[in-house]
Design brief:
By secondary structure, the protein is α/β, with parallel strands linked by helices. Helices cover 39% and strands 18% of the residues. The protein is globular. The structure holds 5'-O-[(R)-(carboxyoxy)(hydroxy)phosphoryl]adenosine (KG4) and zinc ion (ZN). The site of 5'-O-[(R)-(carboxyoxy)(hydroxy)phosphoryl]adenosine has 20 residues, from helix 5 and helix 6.
């Protein structure tokens, strides 16, 4: 069974095929260069560029993998959450292709795709490795999730304000590092001196699993007010101080959750899972407690369609004829928790 998936929730345009045993191929195009002059993602630019490039990526992927559309088992796309205009480009194309090719259609959840990303190389994929704890850290989300099964999620805690990736992006902006910010802050932090700048660890000692990152961004701004013209070393020290604070909080909260739930596996997913300091720190903490640590390769940490295609394969039983697919086609806001208990908006018309 071959699943074709289309991802366009933010600023990456991606299409991929999954063949059941594993990924078959992916084509991806980053829009980063288009958004960089604006310091962040401009939704209208994102939608227009997805609309312009998606079909050619599908054509190229089918050609390079020698795939006849007739052999596809289903067409899938990211239904949400994300930028609604951007989401609608993949939604429209997926509906059109599924209808034209006479294939079932499936709209899937972007964050559930990130959950699957840690298991792309693991035999059996995500369903073979439940239950586990997941730390999801991306540009739009920061959550700790108890994954009981595919489609059965308990959100233990989430950020009260900025997502971790958003905090990286805003600190990059404050430091004049441009967009995308996470990798740039992380690169600058590499030459920082450990302990030279110590920033607060928001909610570190508060009970529970809530996270908060907006105060940390303010702390970075305040520190710069005390040194209006920092030299390159001081900027690197500040970047490292910020990164260390984020990593400390994320590792402490995640460890608290696995100890309390007595879970034997922890997965780190979402764009910020590409961060080397975070990967290494969480891996060390997991090893110290005897947990198995799962993380996607850096190329599959950020948005991609390989994870969406793998998720579509696992959820293939939910695919429907395109005219019976649930409305709305795209959902800008969509909690992972809703997958466990479908809302009225998701009632099927089959
Ligand atoms: O998952 P993703 O590609 O898109 C969303 O679904 O949001 O995550 C993008 C986020 C951005 O905020 C980006 O700055 C952050 O992931 N990011 C990083 C790194 N690479 C990407 N943050 C810290 N360190 C990195 N190396
Ligand atoms: Zn994402």
């Amino acid at each position: 069974m071959l699943a074709l998936a289309i991802e366009s929730s933010c600023d990456d345009t991606a299409v991929a095929l999954h063949g059941g045993d594993g990924p078959v191929g992916e084509r991806r195009r980053s829009q980063a260069a288009l958004h960089a002059p604006h310091g962040g993602v401009v939704p209208e630019i994102a939608s227009r560029d997805h609309a312009r490039t998606l079909l050619s990526l599908v054509d190229a992927l089918l050609a390079e993998t020698g795939t006849d559309p007739a052999s596809l088992g289903l067409v899938a796309y990211t239904r949400g959450p994300g930028l609604v205009g951007a989401l609608l480009t993949a939604a429209s194309l997926a509906h059109g292709l599924a209808y034209g090719w006479g294939k079932p259609l499936l709209g899937v959840h972007h964050i559930e795709g990130h959950l699957v990303s840690a298991f792309l190389d693991a035999p059996g994929g995500l369903p073979a490795h439940v239950p586990f704890l997941a730390l999801v850290v991306s540009g739009g989300h920061s959550l700790l999730v108890h994954v009981r099964d595919l489609g059965c999620y308990e959100i233990l805690g989430a950020t009260r304000d900025d997502a971790a990736g958003e905090a990286f992006d805003k600190v990059a902006q404050i430091l004049g590092l441009g967009y995308p910010g996470g990798p740039a802050v992380s690169r600058l932090a590499e030459s920082g001196r450990p302990g030279a700048v110590v920033l607060p660890r928001p909610l570190l000692r508060a009970p529970g699993y809530a996270l908060s990152f907006s105060g940390l961004k303010t702390a970075v701004r305040r520190w710069l007010e005390t040194r209006p013209e920092p030299d390159e070393q001081e900027r690197a020290d500040l970047a490292l101080g910020f990164e260390e604070a984020v990593v400390d909080v994320l590792v402490a909260k995640t460890r608290r959750a696995w100890r309390s739930l007595r879970l034997g596996r922890v997965a780190l997913v979402g764009g910020v899972s590409a961060n080397r300091r975070l990967r290494a720190a969480l891996e060390r903490a997991a090893a110290a407690d005897g947990l198995r640590f799962l993380v996607p390769p850096p190329a599959l940490s950020t948005d991609n369609a390989a994870m969406i295609a793998a998720l579509a394969y696992f959820r293939r039983g939910d695919a429907l004829p395109p005219l019976a697919a649930p409305h709305p086609w795209a959902r800008a806001r969509w909690s992972l928790a809703e997958l466990s208990a479908p809302s009225d908006g998701d009632l099927r018309v089959a």
